[in-house]
Amino acid sequence: MTKKLILASSSPRRQELLRQVKIPFAFRKQDIDESLIITSDPLKKVKQLSQLKGQSILIEHKDEVIISADTVVTYNQRIFEKPKNKEDALQMLSALSGDVHEVFTGVMIRSVDEEIVFVERTKVEFWQLTKEEIEWYISTNEPYDKAGAYGIQSIGATFVKQIIGDYYNVMGLPISRVVRELREFEVYPETALLN
Where do the domains of the chain lie? Predict the structure, then answer.
């Protein structure tokens, strides 16, 4: 029997990635206080936040599987989450300009019987950005709901010189690994159900 996937997130990018690989899902918005997680270790932070998000959602039926995730950008031992305002976005992008940073995404998958948590890491190198490029970009709405103040899947792609690792991890969900892990929970892409 195929289980029903519940995404514990209202992130449009995570929803888009699950749709892209034809995994049916419903979503339930979680209501958590992220300030409860105070570690400055990015790996621990995304693990703990993904667990906090996922555990805040009740499993209403035994055939439900909850998935939750959290993404942060790190540079020089500093964690860059979503910018609070234009000044915050300007500082983040100026710091990332011309250098390599890392993106960590923690994912938790749980059912009534089991739970797994894993973290994916991707290295991203930015071109040297001009002040004008950064100011133009922060004048758009794009940076403000994204860790590190940029979206690799849209205009922010023009900043990226190279990546080492999973591109989709930078978007917020390492979808290839997620699909493989979901098989263990009996959650499959729609096309796989036809075989």
Answer: 4-193
**Tokens of residue 126, six digits:** 């930015």
Q: What is the pLDDT of residues 72-92, one digit of tens each?
A: 999 998 999 899 999 999 999
| Residue 105 and residue 173 in contact, taking contact as beta carbons nearer than 8 Å | yes
For 65-101, letters b (16+ CB in 10 Å) and e give bbbbbbbbbbbeeebbbbbeeeebbbebbebbbeeeb
CATH number, span 4-193: 3.90.950.10
Q: Which residues of 16-33 are buried (b: 16+ CB within 10 A; e: fewer)?
A: ebbeebebeeebbebebe
**Rounded to two decimals, what is the model's pTM?**
0.91
Q: Rounded CA gap, 142 and 71, in Å?
A: 16
Beta strand 25-27 with 78-80 is: unpaired
174: exposed, middle or buried (C-beta count within 10 Å: 0-12, 13-18, 19+)? buried
- Reduce the DSSP state of residue 150 to 3 states and report it: coil
**pLDDT band, residue 34 (cuts 50/70/90):** confident
* Residues paired with 126 in a beta bridge: 160
Residues with a known catalytic role: 70
